[in-house]
Amino acid sequence: MCGIVGYVGKERCTDILVDALRKLEYRGYDSAGIAVFEGDRIKTVKAKGKIDEGLVKKLPQATFSATCGIGHTRWATHGEPSDVNAHPIGNGRVCIVHNGIIENYREIKTFLTGKGYGFESETDTETVAKLLDYYYNGDPIEAITKAIEDIEGAYSLGIIFREHKNTVYAVRKDSPLIVGKGDGESYIASDVTAILERTRDYYCLERGEIAVLDKSGIRFTDTHGETVEKELLTATWDVESAQKGGYEHFMLKEINEQPDALRNTVSPRIKDGLPNFEECGLTAEKIRSYRQIFIVGCGSAMHSGMVGKYLIEDLARVPVVVDIASEFRYRNPLVSEGDLVVIISQSGETADTLEALKISKRKGAETLAVVNVVGSSIAREADMVIYTNAGPEISVCSTKAYAVQVAFMYLFAFEVAYALGKIDESECRRLVAGLEEVPQKIKECLEDVSPYQYVASKIFNAQSLMYIGRGLDNALSMEGSLKLKEISYIHSEAYAAGELKHGTISLIEEGTPVIAVATQSALFEKTLSNVRTVKSRGAKVVMICKESEQLDKECADFKIGLPASEDLFLPLISVVAMQLIAYYTAVQRGCDVDKPRNLAKSVTVE
Ligand code: F6R
User: Fold this and answer.
1) Residue 212 above 70 pLDDT?
2) Residues enclosing ligand 1, CB less than 6 A?
3) DSSP readout, 248-273?
4) Percent share of the chain, pLDDT over 90
């Protein structure tokens, strides 16, 4: 999604802004631009395409002595990607960068057209820029306050006024924005990774607050002009973790970081060998009081919820409803007081997920956010928060953030089962100890990547692919299929193995690749018979199963063997195999692995 940056300080700001924008590239974008104070004017440069191919080529050499400006990477929503639709947008008097969507932009445009304003772009953003200009009467705070009273939707805005030289204003509603505090300089950014190289200290701007950044420092006011005191936060993520560190892609680096990421998620929530979530207020007593558990998220986060459902229902014998946030929010969900709603999100900013959280709260449920980004909107809104501690995930395609969400689901399922008396203390300890061994098993899977490269070399030309599995393996396959399609652009479907014969098997023809995940002994023979059925219809089968399984040629063309482990943990270990198959397939097809087409890292629009 779009990215915002802004700088006020002593240094020449063009390079600072462009560098910060590069750090936001991972969010997904199709044009980029900056606006800076140059003499008495605001100078804007913007271009369609990648920062280095568009914007940077257009920057006039040595003309920018400016020390204050704003910048943007745009992910088109209203109007195609083009130079004119790129941000910053304004009229020489007021200039803005905007994330989010202005829902009532048509009404505002009609109103302003009636007042004599003309519009050049197709964007909703231009209506805000012109509205600010309309209300501006020498006082920026007053103009901002009046404008945000009129606009509906989600937004974060970075604003400069020509008459208020070297000052950046910022305001937000629902789209995130942080304000960074450096040594004699300050920043705005849509996320902390943009400024990590320059400072770790930042404030989270809240709804209804206006930030004013100038040479004297940073001030926050409310919309009545009253000063707001805010807590200064310090980012714990280091610069290295937001860089590639020698790997060809962030995705590969993040896959390799999974053993550590899992430990960082699980270990702080284990006390004396048992799960313990009291840090966030989730006590055994509370767990016993819940009527029902809901798990809500989007994409990979929702897939981790599917794993949670299998685990919790199996171990704790309580019903779990898993829902896609964009469906949940519009179907008047049967959530009420006495329910627990677990909201899962890497970014903590996904618009649909955030709304699902708000609806759950309004309906009286208790909410538990499982998020990776500290201080994100979902983390701040929820009643209880668990941070997954995976470190920054830069690749658009989620890997380590998904794996730690799944690891959380395991520990959470153990805790619920134990709290409800469905497993005794020694069984709970045994399960926790088993989970603690998973990072080492994942490490073993990462040691030799040749099996995944081999599979990639066999499937990279395929038109379409099928993932099959039963139970937990089915839940994990959904994620495997999503990884493959999002980065390699090969169509794939994940299907419950036993359901194939009810229609989908007609897609199998000579040479169709099928990835069968069969890690569970109790279901192995069942899945194997589904595998034989597709094999006899010409499928080329890759089996992901225990190393110890003996397979003949009628079953599988190739086996990916997983290290010995208790069945329960094998699906979590198999995640790595599916991620690496997708990764090497995308690499062989020459795809932009870290920035797949049409996708954004943080989906802050509906
Ligand atoms: C896929 C992927 C997405 C996200 C989804 C939710 O690789 O990353 O499916 O999982 O957009 O994002 P968060 O977790 O930030 O709410």
Assistant:
1) yes
2) 298-301, 345-347, 350, 353, 397-398, 482, 486, 602-603
3) SSHHHHHHHTHHHHHHHHHGGGEETT
4) 83
